[in-house]
Amino acid sequence: MSSGIDLDYCPKSYFRPEKLEKYLLSKVKGAVLRKKLKALFEAGRHDELRELLNDAALSVADRKALELIHPMFMGGNYLPDTEDSEVEIARISIQSTTFDVTCVYAKPAYGAIHYRVVDEYGGDTLQGPSETTTKSPMTLGEFADFFLTAWPLIDVLDMNFDDDVEGALGFFSADSDFYPDLDLLCRQKVINFYRQR
User: Fold this and answer.
1) Which of 9, 98, 148, 179 has its CB surrounded by the most CB atoms within 10 Å?
2) Cα(155)–Cα(151) distance, integer angstroms
3) Which residues of the chain, if any, have pLDDT below 50?
4) Half-sphere exposure of 23 toward its Cβ, with a 13 Å CA cutoff?
């Protein structure tokens, strides 16, 4: 890949101490709310961020009310909860009607790292192996291969955007606090797929 992406990049650990705001942000499942909170955090608007974080754990009734306004507020809300010691490594969000989100969670497991890919449909959108274990954190290349094999982003885009690479690129975002180039790598894979067609 000639894009300057370091496929061998590897985070030192997934299980590091985090500032309280970042930790709380990682626990917000809803994609729209999480994006808003992240923007406030990055802009240094900490008072507004704290206020929203206090309200981020919406009741079921509040969540349903938002979903009635627009289905995009459903995105991420139906992901499984993280287990004890488990952290979210990355997520891919698509701009479907309900703004679906698929994530990779990881937790320490007897001197190793156990990963699982989760979606909002009880695993129904997953196609490849959705769990694995490694001794140390994966490289970016290994991680992307695992994630995109378990949840086939390219197939999802191909079904929705036959020959429209620009539409496909605008339909998703990949986010990771551990792999800063994940979104760029996913975009490169999408571009390469459409070029090869």
Assistant:
1) 179
2) 9
3) 1, 56, 62-73
4) 8
